[in-house]
Amino acid sequence: MTAGSPVVTVDHLEAEFRKNNVSTPVLSDVVLDLEPGQRLGIVGESGSGKTTLALLLGGLQAENCVVTGGSVDTLGITTASGPQQSPSAVSQMRSLRRNDLAYIEQNPTAALDPTMKIGKQFALAVSASGLTMDNTEIAQALTAVNILVPETVMTSYPHEISGGMAQRVVIALALARQPRLIIADEPTAALDAETRAEVLDLLVDHCNDQKISLIWVSHDLPAVSQWCTRAVVVQRGRIVEEGPVDALFAKPQHPYTQSLVAASVTTATSQSQAAAQLANETPALKMESVSVWLGRGTRRTQILDDISLDIQPGKTLGLIGGSGSGKTTIAKTALGLIAPVTGRISVAGYDHKGSRRQLAGRIQAVLQNPAAAFNPRQMIGASIAEPLRARRQRRSQTEREHRVRELLGLVDLDLRLATRFPHELSGGQLQRAAIARALIVNPEFVVFDEAVSALDVAVRNTVLTLIRQLQTEMGFGALFITHELAAAAQIADEIAVISCGQIVESGPTQEIFATPNHPYTISLLETA
User: Which of 263, 288, 322 is the C-terminal boundary of a domain?
Assistant: First the structure.
């Protein structure tokens, strides 16, 4: 690669997925260039092909993704050209990924070894690129992405930190390797607005200082317009529009781009809805003075401090706060995955300390990481039907399949996806399948933990509307945990703001967004 040459050149790329002698086109006649130091945003709805394109740029595509025409040249190395790659090309791609290319994927836990503490795998990862970092330098790298307690994170396993914290670790690791090109697939989807702005500012500043080129796959159009210099819009595997972000999003020409821009404009008022009519007013979830401590001995830390929540049937409480504030711990505690040190929790009137059988099926969850929620060896349809089998509901195979098809339709998924495996679905498709699985047993309470963070704006609005419709029909209460304030405003009846394990402000959604009182709430709204 000579000085001034494009960092990435995609020349009339054609690609398809092949399975059981069936070919499904995924990319068609894709042409693009990325110049040194540029920041390119790839935008499009879930399933449009944007992630597949990003993977091909780094030679990271799935085995069943076959290039049928054109080529991809990344940093002077051909990463995709025809169905087969020569051994020398494969070796060159490995060297490229080891030394010059960093890939930040949408699912941070997939990039981290679950059996190794963060600090150790951080050191091993940078050493593979020929670099060395001691504990002090690793702590500094973590602090740079707004991890305030780096020493604690370094001695933790991936499952012991939140999804947002894990994503910041992965971003810090990518920057520490000093690459020439960073490909980031929804790198900040798990972060709250304030942290997202700080991390993206850091990422962009680092790229500018080190002359690093950046490709950012995202459904967040406002963020792409703020932090990228150019953007391409992908629809059904084709680039339908491209250009400088200012012109592209201010005056979009293609109808699809226009629809994406229109869908990204959301209001800060919650949708009105009729309350579910139930025979009694027993809260769907009640938490009374709940406190949670984690760790042992001198490392024992209070995570939740005197939390009280009361969510009625048919109502949604939006829980907002920064990454690491305690949102996910509340979700795990409500689900019975963490036992509180003090306080009491009940679901639909059934105490957490009572029979597990009484709680089974009454509470379901849609969690932040959809890829980890599905058995990779089980087809999507079978996974969605799993709660029916777990509750031993007396339904025939035909009845279960009918119910699965019904839920797939409700969450706007192609019925053919029932026979696909999780790795064949996009992140957005997987999250919608997770919502279908949670609702298949008609629960009385549902925890949505960042349930729409992986979805593009158009699909997100559809799913939020769907949740509202189903809630009206089924009457379940919901805890909607999010860092997306627009999503919380759209779906929540009431808002609770959490900071450092404490609820600092709560009330009706319109009041919280119109006249916030606590300084932390005000700062969240200002950075949204």
Answer: 263
